[in-house]
Amino acid sequence: MGVKLIVDAFNTLAVTASGKRVELSGRLSDLQAQGLADAALLSQLGHMANAQSALAFGKADTAWVPFASSLEQFRELVGEQLTVVSSQHVAGINESVWRARVHAHAPNERINQQNLVAEVTQRFRWAAQGAASQEDEPPVAAPDKADAELGPRKDEGVADRRRRQIFLGACEVIAKKGWANASIRDITRAAKITIPTMYQYISGKEDILYLVTSMCMEEILQHFQAHTQSDKAPLESLVDAIAAYFGYIDKNRRYINLVYSETRSLSEVNRERIFELEKQFIYLWELILIKGNETGVFNIRNTHLAANLIYFLCTAWALRHWSIGIYPEEEVKQHILDMILNGIRVGS
Question: Could you give the count of Cα atoms lying within 13 Å of 164 in the half-sphere of its Cβ?
Fold first, then answer.
């Protein structure tokens, strides 16, 4: 269906609803003329699209009640045309999540990942219309006791604990079933939390995968930094770095394998975030190699390339464990260390 939507802050925008999604389009200059800051403009556009989408495709005999939203802006708001596409991201029993993607582009350019500038995610609770009895309403899962005691605002410790529960539950389920066959219900059971509690920390299934991969990479960074010291000599630092990474891998192989096998399932934006964390880790390796070059201990023509290769060679202990796991960890670690040190010409 095609309709016109007029909202106080904006000129008339064309709205099209079809195929379980709502699309808004308008000229950027017309919208910016209203004097709103970019963040406010993006937020209101996303809210408009999500509201229209919820109205068009929500449950029959219900009213949508938005109660939480978030805005992520990825690029500067530049372009002649704005197109906002909203679709249902998660369909729950009592709550739903809708996500609006804002694209800024030339008039004849199709919307794509390159011209995506922001995402606005909203959670809605569904309220029955009329005088429905309590028995007519769908059952609501009881909140976790810890959440009920805390009230609406949670301290950071509880938030971290909940994310850790989701992380461990997701790893357990994904390791058994694979990402494609893992359901949110399976993950909540493994995490020992309720579905409503889960949605306080994620807005959809992909958020769980991003949580798993990002937490794994952050843990690797923290473990690496905690077990290496920058004031040591380069050769000793490199030996310590390999030992630290091997130690983490040996305890967390399945997490690392998940990162490598399932990162492709993330959106382009979230993949880039994970790659940024990887780049930080590789940079820690490269700093050791640069210092070794400067002191004459190492002779490496391309420290960035060498850091990437050393990192991946160590990661083989997780990725190839099905094959090289027949050897003791210490033997594999020493063999890789010998290959690396011979390759970078220690002492030359």
Answer: 7
